[in-house]
Amino acid sequence: MGEAFRPDRLTAATAPESMASWVMAYGPASDAEALKLLRGRYPDSPLSVRVAALDFAMRRGGFGTDRRA
User: Fold this and answer.
1) At CA 47, angle to CA 21 and CA 13, rounded to 5?
2) Please, which residues have CB within 8 angstroms of residue 59's CB and are 6 or more apart in sequence?
3) Residue of 38, 36, 34 whose CA lies nearest to 58
4) What does the alpha-carbon distance between residue 14 and residue 52 come to, in Å, rounded to a whole number?
5) pLDDT tens string 8-65
6) DSSP states of the chain as a string?
7) CB–CB of 59/65 below 8 Å?
């Protein structure tokens, strides 16, 4: 019979904080570009985790040009 839990198939989820620091190293010009980079680097992460990483990065300094109106 098979095993219900196989530790060799367990993958650790990447924390949004580490995803944010990775994407900030590339200095994307916009939020959309940042999400595109995150999707390319972390294709198996849910959109909600990538958006959380984007939010974390924005709070840490943001991307691109000044956004004040």
Assistant:
1) 60
2) none
3) 34
4) 11
5) 554 566 888 899 999 989 888 888 999 999 999 999 999 999 999 999 988 887 665 4
6) ---S--GGG--PPPPHHHHHHHHHTT--SSHHHHHHHHHHH-TTS-HHHHHHHHHHHHHHT-SSS----
7) no
Tokens (6 digits) for 59: 């709070």
Would you state the structure tokens that stand for residue 14, as one six-digit string?
């990447």
pTM of the full structure? 0.68
Length of the chain: 69
Structure tokens at 16: 């949004």
Taking alpha carbons only, the member of 8, 42, 6 closest to residue 22 is: 42
Domain ranges of the chain: 14-60
